[in-house]
Specification:
Organism: Stakelama saccharophila
Family: Belongs to the asparagine synthetase family.
Number of helices: 23
Strand order of the largest sheet: 2-3-1-9-8-10
Largest sheet: 6 strands, antiparallel
Catalytic activity: L-aspartate + L-glutamine + ATP + H2O = L-asparagine + L-glutamate + AMP + diphosphate + H(+)
Pathway: Amino-acid biosynthesis; L-asparagine biosynthesis; L-asparagine from L-aspartate (L-Gln route): step 1/1
Number of strands: 17
Strand content: 15-25%
Mean pLDDT: 93
Distance between the termini: 28 Å
Shape: globular
EC number: 6.3.5.4
Helix content: 25-40%
């Protein structure tokens, strides 16, 4: 099982009354397949799998891989266990990676809770009157620990402004999430959090010494090792492919594993979203069978939230068609996992600005190299070389921090005010000496966390995004931002890395499929439903949306244009999620 379910109760102190475990519903826990793993003064842990013991009450749940060879860890030697505990878990982040949670005792009688960097095993935190409860999912908190969910409207406002930027605050009151690479400490009723890992740690100190060809070779081996490690537990897989670079790289790694695998590509009626030609070229080259399914707007139920039961409205309604087709294909083929290239654009530095050229100018080196970078960015962005140079030079005078714009459109002033912290994220605060291209790259990686966080434990077949893994991210961040551009292409290092594994039209493809036409089909078919959800729903009742502006978009007739329809679709998704919790 890729994501073990668990629930842990941490008392206010080891001297707390013996009845501190009474709120936990043991029979219900047993019904969920949870068994007591640790029963210690101050800590009671129930989980669906035994975990990796570190001695005493110290334990690691989930998947752990060694950094040097990506081998899965089945047990820790005594000396290594002591080192992990002594360092408060930082040794795990330094020498290992994966999807894990560590619970460690400290010398002061408290406990530390560490979540793996970029790991997709969630850590939800709720402070009850009896102590601190951490769990893999909300259902366990409700059914076993007695958590009563209600809406956190500040969290909802933050989500509306920046849905892809994960914050500790969720959209459920009193429920927080421990971010990947963070460590929480529970001591005598107080919960504090510090960050022990950041992608900034991997940025090259001497970028001019990084050779792009060596970087491509290292990236290829890192991706192959990490993807293979993540997927080794599955004998049969279903790969979602589009013929784009990221999903093709994952498919190539799967094909190289010599496991049973089938590919699925989703198709729209509009030619812009029909990528069968590329998908067929890819799967033929890899020797993989391919299925194609037409996206049908009639299959989309806007009243149903795929994020029901999750602490954020993190699923989009238009993805219902892909999800249904993927799970049907997985059942037919016996696939144990649905694998995709989500987050690849972010990890492979798909930056669309002159910031990488600014990095090149700041690093120094020959003018010919800077001129080449300027030409590559100009070709990619369809701007003149002069304009790219001017933008890069202007960027020299600015703070290197990457600024996430956020989306405040169609929101009321009170919603915007409530979301004042929506764009806060520790990775968006660059250290001294940071360069803007690296800051932009890491900003994209921060947004990619939304792909792996908040997985649904109820899914019959897990969905895995193996490119969002600590060793891959660290390898990519260590590559100077300007190396990611070549011959007018972005993500160039990844293209070079897999040039020999993919058909050339795939490895160096310029175009990118779009599913905008499918979203428009859903919108036009469901105007009345969207009006009901958004104009008269819970968001409107709470004063979060601009009803007049929304009415203006819905009243427009003729072909759908602009971006307002996509914003209303997002509002409808949030509304469906709100109703799923209000009705509980």
């Amino acid at each position: 099982m890729i994501r073990p379910r668990y629930l842990a109760f941490l008392a206010c102190g080891i001297d707390a009354d013996a009845d501190w475990k009474d709120p936990l519903d043991g029979p219900v826990a047993n019904a969920f397949g949870l068994m007591t793993i640790v029963d210690h003064p101050g800590l009671h842990l129930m989980a669906a799998s035994p975990g990796l013991g570190l001695g005493g009450e110290n334990i690691v749940l989930g998947e752990v891989f060694r950094r040097d060879d990506c081998a899965r860890v089945r047990s820790f030697e005594s000396a290594e266990s002591r080192a992990i505990v002594a360092t408060g878990g930082t040794r795990l982040a330094d020498e290992y990676w994966g999807a894990y949670l560590a619970i460690l005792s400290d010398e002061g009688g408290g406990f530390m809770v560490l979540r793996a960097p970029l790991g997709d095993l969630p850590v939800y935190v709720w402070q009850s009157q009896h102590g601190l409860v951490i769990a893999s999912d909300v259902e366990l908190l409700v059914r076993i620990a007695g958590y009563r969910p209600s809406i956190d409207w500040v969290g909802v406002a933050e989500h509306l402004v920046a849905p892809d930027l994960r914050r500790p605050r969720t959209c459920l009151a009193g429920l927080y999430e421990l971010s990947g690479g963070s460590r929480g400490r529970w001591h005598r009723g107080a919960w504090t959090v510090d960050d022990i890992w950041s992608p900034w740690r991997a940025v090259a100190a001497e970028p001019l010494r990084v050779d792009s060809r060596d970087a491509a070779e290292l990236l290829a081996s890192t991706i192959q090792s990490a993807v293979t490690a993540r997927l080794a537990q599955f004998d049969r897989m279903l790969g979602l492919v589009s013929g784009g670079l990221d999903s093709s790289i994952v498919a190539a790694c799967v094909a190289d594993m010599d496991k049973a695998a089938t590919a699925l590509t989703m198709v729209t009626r509009d030619r812009g979203g029909d990528e069968r030609h590329y998908a067929e070229a890819l799967t033929s080259h890899l020797g993989m069978s391919l299925r194609s399914v037409l996206r049908e707007p009639v299959e989309i139920d806007l009243f149903k939230s795929a994020a029901a039961g999750l602490p954020r409205p993190s699923a989009r309604s238009f993805a219902q068609a892909t999800r249904a087709a993927a799970h049907a294909a997985a059942c037919e083929t016996g696939a144990q996992a649905i694998v995709h290239g989500g987050g690849g654009d972010n990890v492979f530095c798909s930056v669309q600005s002159a910031a990488p050229l600014t990095d090149r100018l700041l690093a120094g080196g020959d003018l010919q190299g800077s001129w080449k970078v300027a030409g590559d960015i100009a070709m990619l962005t369809q701007a003149s070389v002069g304009r790219v140079l001017w933008q890069a030079i202007r960027r020299l005078r600015r703070d290197p921090a990457y600024r996430v714009a956020g989306d405040r459109s169609l929101l009321s002033s009170c919603a915007v005010a409530a979301a004042s912290s929506a764009l806060d994220h520790p990775w968006l605060l660059p250290p001294p000496g940071a360069m803007p291209g690296s800051a932009a790259h890491i900003g994209l990686i921060a947004a990619a966390q939304s792909v792996v966080e908040s997985p649904d434990p109820r899914a019959a077949v897990p969905s895995v995004a193996p490119l969002i893994a600590q060793p891959i991210v660290e390898a990519c961040v260590a590559i100077p931002s300007w190396h990611w551009f070549d011959r007018g292409h972005n993500r160039a290092v990844a293209r070079h890395a897999f040039n020999d594994y993919l058909p050339e039209p795939i490895a160096w493809r310029r175009s990118k499929g779009a599913m905008d036409s499918f979203v428009i089909e859903i919108f036009e078919r469901n105007r009345d439903v969207i009006a009901q959800l958004v104009k008269e729903g819970l968001l409107a009742a709470h004063g979060f949306v601009d009803r007049n502006a929304i009415a203006g978009i819905l009243d427009q007739r003729g072909p759908t244009r602009g971006h307002g329809y996509a914003r209303l679709m997002h509002f409808a998704d949030v509304e469906a999620w709100l109703r799923s919790w209000i009705s509980v």
